[in-house]
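Justification of resources, computational component.

The compute hours requested in this renewal are based largely on the per-chain cost of generating structure records like the one below. Each record pairs the submitted sequence with a full structure-token output. That output is archived, and it is also reused by downstream analysis tasks.
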Amino acid sequence: MAINNFINDEESSAKSRVSPAVIKRLPRYYRYLRELLQNDILRISSGELSKLMHVTASQIRQDLNCFGGFGQQGYGYNVKYLYGKIGEILGVTQHYNAIIIGAGNLGSALAASPVFERRGVKLTALFDSSPDVIGRSVSGYTVKSIDELEDYVRNNDVSIAVLTLTKDAVRDMAERLAGLGIKGLWNFASTELNLSNKDVVVQNVHMGDSLMTLCYELTK
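The structure output for this chain reads:
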């Protein structure tokens, strides 16, 4: 038991030393590897992968070496194995449960998309405060009243909450969810959230920032 704990501590420590830039690239590797498997490509070199991803072969090797390398000199990478290992690193194999708070246009679009299933996350419920929305069927889910949130979270293993709320409502909701023990927030509101003091991981998604980056590139 002590040896296993030591190994787990070492793995956690190694992960904590990986730069945010490398972590940000991992989902992209995962996506490209999935496409390779769909095309029955089972082996690839770092040079071939670099041409697909427009990342240097050296960068690919450096990134993957942060987690053990996974490649063999003269062979390259076993695509299926590497896909599985990156999935483990990203937590895809943990099968987290998620809920959506806000069943408007964005919340409904997310519920209808394959984004959760493809990343190993199971969407289990949608919540809203509007009487016009509560009780409606959205992609097979009956939208629940936000008043049911506490009971639902207590009786279900929920790790992730997706927030598609206005900036005026999102902070109070984030605090409420943190109080219920939710450990991960995927925030689509325009307000930046930081709940590190409550041991809650937040991923803020700024679609407007992405659009402005695109406009900047066009302007150049």
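The chain has ten helices and eleven strands. Confidence is low (pLDDT under 50) at residues 1-14.
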